[in-house]
Design a protein that fits this description.
The chain is of the alpha+beta class. The protein is about 55% helix and about 10% strand. The protein is built from 17 helices and 14 strands. Strands 1, 3, 4, 5, 7, 8 and 10 form a seven-stranded mixed β-sheet that branches. Strands 2-11-6-9 form a four-stranded antiparallel β-sheet. β12 and β13 form a beta hairpin. α10 packs across α12 and α15 packs across α17. The protein is elongated and about 155 Å long. The N terminus is likely disordered.
């Protein structure tokens, strides 16, 4: 009691400017790896985060530092900044370089100050949220050089720590040679660990592409999730994959456990066939995952709601449910390979529990504790591989049994089919004889029907010939009647139903004596451009059917103009423009002009001996 009181009063009595630690850590020449235990470590909490090293080393702060009472101190208040102080004395002068290593790599911001005599050495600021490449030692942990001093000289270390995680304050002094040996072995083992996981991921991916069973792709996703979680825990991802982007560390810490949980749920449900054996547990787990997804979305929008302590314990709940379900199926004896699955999962559960303990500041200085999650993953991969091998063998046995039963069933079916084939053959032969008799009857009837069809065909041909002659006679009689008598427009268009019929009639009248070109009098022609036009083969002159007729340069519809000519000729003076306008739907003025043109032509040709009204058409 008096000894401690004397040490505390020393700075006040002698006016010292350095915080005097109660105990000084003595480093002997035989030491190579020294843990800074709580007996040598003093802590000062700075809630404002505004203290500087020059303020901290002042004598009035000596009484504010306190010891951790034997427990490993942690970052209990994530809103505060912590100052840590410890003293080291090298018993003998040592030419070997010593290093200070801070073992928890999840500290957001850390800065180290070293006081030798009255001189303060400020080392570069590092942290989980600072650029990795700025570290003096490119190592996954925070490593600093310890200045070399004379034998018996004290060195005081001040560490300023600000972290959002429950980071434990665990430090070590290590000789440079031992640190290199230890780091190389550690990286070598971690390389083997990641190599095993990658090989298992690639192996199961190839199996998936071969058998096309989604279970293997679920396992690949789970292994990738294990790799991401391990990257976040050992810092190799930050060192090798995203050293310039420290914010990815926060995303890995926040979302990698969720991805691990999600991938493990879908893999476990598929592997243990929850849909068949435990459908209610399956739906309950998906409800939990939906709630977690909403929770992650909310904390992404409102980051202050994120609390690692609560989040990790929430993540643990579905793992416990899956572990309980695996135990239930194993005890029920559902599948042989469930035991291997459960054994491997047990190691992973130990690692997950240790991970949650570390995240909440519970740490043991043991390699087995630190890498318990990685060890669990490797052991789990081994037993999961055995489980999948047994599962494949069981599936193969089931398929072989099913094939054997199928072969027996096929043989039985073959016997039944042979009997049915014999019965069916007899029935077919009986039906065949009946059909042959009926076919003979049908052949006889077919010959009779064929003779009748020939006779009907001959009679139809005679009737068609008579019908064609009758229609031709009727058409000629009607046409003659139209040419010589007065008929109405409806009866007229039966003979001349469209413009083609009118143009054809006009061409027949115009060239009834034979074709002769108007220009060169050539009598050879080809079809020209326009309705029934003719083109001279010699000079190429194209002559329309209306040229040199009363209809030349007329814009009237030829069918209506032809009827108008027919009507005016037969009714002489009795036809009026008003009646034609109403009948044909043409303007009265247009009708009047064409009527006058017709009557003028009739006067000019009245002395000519012609039959019918068609002689007026030609000029």
């Amino acid at each position: 009691m008096f000894k401690r009181l004397f040490i505390l009063l020393m700075p006040l009595l002698f006016g010292g400017g350095v915080v005097a630690a109660k105990n000084i850590l003595l480093v002997k020449p035989t030491d190579k790896d020294v843990v800074i235990k709580t007996d040598y470590l003093e802590i000062l909490e700075d809630p404002s985060g505004s203290l500087h090293i020059q303020e901290v080393i002042r004598s009035e702060f000596a009484k504010k530092f306190h010891y951790s009472q034997g427990d490993l101190p942690i970052n209990q208040n994530t809103e505060s900044t912590y100052w840590l102080c410890f003293k080291v004395k090298f018993v003998e002068e040592d030419s070997q370089q010593w290093l200070l290593e801070i073992l928890d790599l999840h500290i957001n911001h850390i800065q180290v100050f070293i006081q030798v005599n009255n001189q303060i050495i400020t080392l570069p600021s590092e942290g989980y949220l600072e650029n990795f490449k700025k570290r003096p030692y490119l190592h996954k942990n925070f490593v600093y050089d310890v200045p070399q001093v004379e034998a018996g000289q004290e060195i005081t270390f001040y560490l300023r720590i600000k972290s959002e995680n429950y980071a434990p304050f665990l430090f070590k002094l290590r000789r440079n040679s031992f640190f290199i040996h230890y780091a190389l072995n550690e990286y070598y083992i971690l390389g083997l660990y990641y190599g095993i996981l990658l090989i298992m991921a690639l192996y199961n991916a190839m199996i998936y592409f071969y058998v096309r069973e989604h279970l293997y792709m679920y396992y690949v996703l789970y292994v990738i999730s294990c790799i991401l979680v391990s990257f976040g825990e050992d810092g190799l991802g930050f060192q090798y994959l995203w050293p310039h982007y420290p914010l990815i560390n926060l995303w890995i810490d926040r979302y990698a456990p969720f991805l691990l949980l999600f991938s493990f749920i879908i893999y476990t449900q598929s592997f243990l066939e929850f849909k068949k054996h435990m459908p209610q547990t399956r739906f309950f787990l998906w409800y939990i995952m939906a709630a977690y997804t909403i929770y992650l979305f909310v904390i992404e929008l409102f980051t202050k709601l994120y609390h690692p302590h609560t989040y990790l314990y929430l993540i643990l709940l579905p793992f416990i449910i899956l572990y309980r379900a695996a135990i239930y199926l194993y005890l029920k004896g559902v599948k042989v390979y469930t035991g291997f699955f459960l054994l491997g999962y047990s190691f992973t559960m130990i690692g997950i529990v240790n991970l949650i303990l570390r995240k909440n500041g519970v740490v043991w200085d043991s390699i087995w504790f630190v890498y318990s999650l990685d060890i669990g993953f490797v052991v789990e991969v081994f037993f999961f591989s055995l489980a999948q091998a047994y599962r494949l063998r069981e599936i193969k046995n089931e398929k072989e049994q099913a094939q054997h039963e199928l072969i027996l069933q096929l043989k039985e079916n073959e016997k039944i089919i042979q009997i049915e084939v014999q019965q069916r053959t007899q029935e077919i032969n009986r039906q065949k004889s009946i059909i042959e008799k009926q076919n003979q009857v049908l052949v006889n009837q077919s010959e009779e029907l064929k003779a009748q069809a020939e006779e009907i065909k001959r009679i139809n041909q005679l009737l068609n010939q008579e019908n064609e002659q009758l229609q031709s006679s009727v058409k000629e009689l009607t046409k003659s009647r139209v040419l010589t008598q007065v008929v109405d427009f409806e009866e007229f268009i039966k003979i001349f139903p469209d413009e083609d019929a009118c143009y054809q009639f006009l061409a027949e009248i115009k060239w009834q004596s034979g074709y002769a070109c108007n220009r060169c009098q050539n009598r050879s022609y080809t079809l020209g451009r326009g309705h029934f036009a003719r083109r001279c083969t010699k000079c190429g002159y194209n002559e329309s059917a209306t040229v040199n007729t009363i209809f030349e340069r007329s814009h009237l519809d030829l069918q209506k103009a032809l009827y108008m000519l027919f009507l005016v000729y037969n009714q002489k003076e009795n036809t009026s423009a008003v009646e034609l306008s109403q009948t044909l739907g043409i303007r009265e003025n247009t009708c009047g002009k064409f009527i006058r043109k017709i009557r003028t032509k009739m006067k000019n040709t009245k002395n000519q001996i012609q039959e019918g009204w068609t002689h007026i058409i030609l000029d």
